[in-house]
Amino acid sequence: xxxxxxxxxxxxxxxxxxxxxxxxxxxxxxxxxxxxxxxxxxxxxxxxxxxxxxxxx
Length: 57
What we know:
Blueprint: H1 3-26, H2 29-56
Helix pairs in contact: 1-2
């Protein structure tokens, strides 16, 4: 996996986790849901990149 893409995907997942945690803390359900969505997107991108890398080898 390209290091830049990996960092970007992990950052997106982390950002989503922070939003989810903040949403829980302040009782904002939409922020919490948005955070979960960003986490899922980051995780999906990581999985896709890993699959691409596996096919290259």
